[in-house]
Amino acid sequence: MTTAHPRLTLTACILASSLAFIDGSVTNVALPAIGADLRATPAELQWTINAYLLPLSALLLLGGGAGDHFGRRKLLIAGIALFALASAACAVASDLGLLLAARALQGIGAAILLPNSLAVLSNAFTGPERGKAIGTWAAAGAIAGAVGPPLGGWLVDAVGWRAIFFVNLPVAAVAIGIVWRYVDEKVEGTLPLDWPGAATATLALGALTWGLTLWSSQGMLDLQTAAALAAGLALIAAFVWIERRRGPRAMMPLSLFASRAFAGLTLLTFLLYGALGGVLLLLPYVLIEAGGYTALQAGLALLPLPIGIGLASRLMGSLTTRLGPHLPLSIGPLIVAAGFAALLLVETSADYWTSVFPGVTIIALGMSCVAAPLTTAVLASVDDRHSGTASGFNSAIARTGGLIATAVAGAVIASAGSALIAAFHAAALVGGAMAALSGAAAWFTLGAQSPPPPR
Fold it and tell me: Which residue of 39, 246, 273, 318 shows the fewest CB atoms closer than 10 Å?
């Protein structure tokens, strides 16, 4: 271990990242209540999620690079503080426009704190202890994201939707206190920042998200939608050109993709976390709107996710240190795909234990095989100097997958009654196919990898 307070460092990193993970899912069960209170349409409700995911996806790479440049401890504290201020603004927002602006600020704060929490953690441990710590961090993040819906449901029913943002404040205060007092940092150097790349990535994701949201909510490809999608694709091409020109100074160095394993991990992350983000958004919404669940009941329906992931992820982190990531990253997504298929049992009047519980439990089992091995494999692929950039890139890909899934989910959210159930079934099949493809990507690109060497 390379820090005087490893356990407190782990605690601080878990608390910080939990803020971002919880807020990425807690809002899902509050959408009906927010829509009723602020008179928002289904298309506008999508932006309650997208306003958070867009800056988070686009700026994670820059957030990790900024930590490598200015210092990860400083950026971690700054990200937590910004997230807390934005949470307070969300809680007191008087209309949808103010709420969306505050959600965007939350996304910026999350983009700063997420990669730097993992980079600080990675620098605090060495050898087998690093695998265990990363496994614990990954498990806590997955649990936090899955605990969000039941926590949010209880708060919405008992207090109101604004409470889901107020609860972030004490957690942020404790996290800042621990980081300020106990977290050490060994400065690794000052890597350059890529402002042109960050701006282009943000514009590209914004255009794509806008176009996909319009297409999914309207069910048609009009001139405005086509123009937004074309602009997004053109900006992606421009982003790749900029990153190629900048070489090692790029926020997404294209040389990373010379590694077959790194390319496979990127594809796996995008497909699997896109599918998972879609179901975490749609399932609570469907249960409330078509199944007659309360917000609390819809949140509790996802409880097997944090329990299953929490019980297995730390163990998987240790196993990955000894055995390597190939098998868990190949088999886990296939189990997730089976869980999505089981969600076809969800019907308007079906019993929870026979319709929802089996699918959610199987998904939890599959994700517990993925969370820690994926994080460990990504960090093992780069040197310590670039750990912030690497963790930021992988998190950005995961959030981008969720962002695209949320944008397309408008086609489901805009439905009602039996049509809503049918649309959800179609979405579950698409999610299952994405998960299966992610497992295939791991199998064919990782190969029989040996365990990463101690660092």
Answer: 39
Report which secondary-structure segment, H or E, holds 335.
Answer: helix 326-342
Note whether 439 and 67 are within 8 A (CB): no
Measured CA to CA, the distance from residue 87 to residue 16 in angstroms comes to: 14
pLDDT above 90 coverage of the chain, percent: 32
Q: How far apart are CA 359 and CA 338, in angstroms?
A: 8
Count, residues in the chain: 455
Higher local confidence (pLDDT), 61 or 164: 164
C-alpha–C-alpha distance, residues 393 and 47, integer Å: 23
pLDDT for 353 equals 93
Cβ atoms of 388 and 191 closer than 8 Å: no
User: What sign has the CA pseudo-torsion 443, 449, 451, 453?
Assistant: negative
Distance CA 229, CA 207 (A): 6
What's the DSSP call for residue 191? Answer: P
Query: Minimal CA–CA distance to 285: which of 149, 419, 100?
Result: 149
Scan for tokens 């503080």, then name that residue: 81
Residue 66's Cβ-side half-sphere holds a number of Cα atoms within 13 Å equal to 23
The two three-digit tokens of residue 216, written as one number: 């999914």
Distance CA 295, CA 152 (A): 8
- Contact, 281 vs 50, CB < 8 A? no
Q: Which amino acid is at 146?
A: A
- Cα 332 from chain centre: 18
Query: What predicted TM-score, i.e. pTM, was given to this entire model?
Result: 0.77
Residue reference for tokens 């900029």: 242
CB-based burial of residue 181 (10 Å sphere; 0-12 exposed, 13-18 middle, 19+ buried)? exposed
| DSSP states of 222-287 | -HHHHHHHHHHHHHHHHHHHHHHHHGGGSSS-GGGGGSHHHHHHHHHHHHHHHHHHHHHHHHHHHH
Q: How far apart are CA 277 and CA 405, in angstroms?
A: 7
Tell me the three state secondary structure of residue 329: helix
The residue to which tokens 């940092």 are assigned: 185
Residue 95 three-state SS: coil
Alpha helices by DSSP H, listed for 343-386, are 352-355, 357-368, 371-380
Residues 6+ positions from 187 with CB-CB distance below 8 Å: 71
| Gap between the Cα atoms of 35 and 46, Å rounded | 10
d(CA 445, CA 262): 8
Residues 280 and 53: their CA atoms lie apart, in Å, by 14
pLDDT in the model for residue 93: 94
Q: Mean pLDDT across the stretch 282-308?
A: 87
| Cα gap 137→14, rounded to integer Å | 6
